[in-house]
Amino acid sequence: MGIVAYKPMIIRTCTILILFIFQCSLSYCQERESIININESDLRLLIKNAEKGNSESQLELGTRYYNGYSVNINYEKSAYWTEKSAEQGLHDAQYAIGLYYSKGIGVTKDLKKAMYWYEKSALQKNKYAEYQLGYIYENGIGIEANFVESANWYEKSALQGMEFAQIKIGKMYFLGKGVEVNKKKGATWIKKCMDSGSERAQIIWNKMKLWEYL
Question: Is the pLDDT of residue 37 over 50?
Answer without folding.
Answer: yes
